[in-house]
From TrEMBL:
Pathway field: Amino-acid biosynthesis; L-histidine biosynthesis; L-histidine from 5-phospho-alpha-D-ribose 1-diphosphate: step 7/9
Cofactor list: pyridoxal 5'-phosphate
Stretches assigned to the Aminotransferase class I/classII large domain: 51-344
Family: Belongs to the class-II pyridoxal-phosphate-dependent aminotransferase family. Histidinol-phosphate aminotransferase subfamily.
Organism listed in the record: Pseudoalteromonas aurantia
Keyword Transferase: yes
EC number: 2.6.1.9
PROSITE patterns for this protein: AA_TRANSFER_CLASS_2
Oligomer status and interactors: Homodimer.
Protein name per its UniProtKB record: histidinol-phosphate transaminase
Catalytic activity: L-histidinol phosphate + 2-oxoglutarate = 3-(imidazol-4-yl)-2-oxopropyl phosphate + L-glutamate
Length: 357
């Protein structure tokens, strides 16, 4: 009898070298106060009526596409609905990058899925710094991204919360016309609406904007995102996307989330969360256990602890927050903005660790 080959011998050579994205929910941690995934603390009550689950769904449900186009201030032909913004990242790399030949540019530290997606498709990463993006000249940035097919800008940036001015993004996009696609990830844009690049879409056909319903819209469990761009960019992507990416259930819930009343409610909740963030920032600024605070935009605050052993007290209190290794140091922590009771627990934790310093 011939022995069966081991599974790993059947895999392409580059698969073993890949590192999976470590999402907040993939880490096996326990607690009862979840402030590690930048989720909204608001719970959605959803009522849906389904009588046609025996039929395949509309691949791009027109009511949802039209509603999101109206919300974003673009035309419906400029919108593709995706399974979260993550699928948008994957579609862009698969469509526009040639494996083992092309590279993408990104500004570190930033959202980890850009690199994971590139690695998965054997596309190189041109890793640059957030400092270059924020403080460098447009000429410096263009020189650094020269040769990259896609240039990812997370705005507001996760996990630092930093904002790249719209005018600077416009200048970079203009300079890269015919050379690269600029991809602006606006997952957190509802918390900083004045910094959206959506209005630039009328001027540039090499600009793509990624959006999501996971954050401000309080629908992380729905896994719904949108890709906004010129028809010339989206047409090739429509050839690559899965045949039925949007389920009937998801489409119905997303459509309800985008009606005028729901959008008004979302903006009201964003106002509350932004105010709560200011309160959290004041507590952090007063704590002797905190070494540094990155007080940018988004529904989170990233900070550096004087001693990362403080996290053991958080675990004992049931607090689940997101530890980070940033700038070569492992004592960074990102705290999502939760409800009043959640943040009261964070205050209790800060009081405990401040007393230890």
């Amino acid at each position: 009898m011939t022995d069966k080959p081991a599974q790993d011998t059947l895999l392409p050579g580059n698969i073993e070298a890949l590192t999976a994205y470590s999402s907040a929910k993939s880490e096996k941690v326990s607690g009862n106060i979840w402030l590690n995934a930048n989720e909204s603390p608001y719970v959605k009550d959803v009522n849906i009526i389904l009588s046609d689950l025996n039929r395949y769904p509309d691949p791009q449900p027109a009511p949802v596409i039209d509603a999101y186009a109206d919300y974003a201030g673009v035309s419906s032909e400029q919108v593709i609905m995706t399974r979260g913004a993550d699928e948008g990242i994957d579609l862009l790399v698969r469509t526009y990058c040639e494996p083992a030949t092309d590279n993408i540019a990104l500004f570190l530290p930033t959202y980890g899925m850009y690199k994971v997606t590139a690695d998965t498709h054997n596309v190189a990463v041109n890793g640059l710094s957030q400092d270059l993006l924020l403080s460098g000249t447009v000429e410096d940035i263009i020189k650094a991204v020269s040769g990259s097919k896609l240039v990812f800008i997370c705005n507001p940036n996760n996990p630092t919360g930093s904002i790249t001015p719209v005018e600077k993004i416009a200048q970079v996009t203009k300079a890269l016309a015919g050379k690269a696609i600029v991809v602006v990830d606006e997952a957190y844009i509802e918390f900083s609406e004045s910094n959206s690049c959506a209005l630039l879409l009328k001027d540039f056909d090499n600009l793509v904007i990624l959006r999501t319903l996971s954050k401000a819209f309080a629908l992380a469990g729905l896994r719904t995102g949108f890709m906004l761009g010129d028809k010339s960019i989206l047409t090739p992507i429509r050839k690559v996307i899965a045949p039925y990416p949007v389920s009937t259930v998801v489409a119905q819930i997303a459509e309800k989330a985008l009606n005028s009343d729901a959008i008004t409610q979302m903006r009201r909740q964003v106002t509350i969360l932004n105010k709560a963030k200011l309160t959290l920032l004041s507590w952090l600024e007063q704590s002797p256990a905190v070494n540094n605070i990155l007080s940018g935009d988004g529904n989170f605050v990233t900070l550096q602890l004087k001693d990362k052993s403080c996290l053991s007290f958080a675990a004992q209190m049931g607090l689940v927050m997101r530890p980070f290794n940033l700038y070569g140091q492992d004592n960074w922590l990102r705290i999502s903005i939760g409800n009043e009771q959640d943040l009261k627990s964070v205050k209790d934790w800060l009081d405990v660790i401040s007393a230890q310093v």
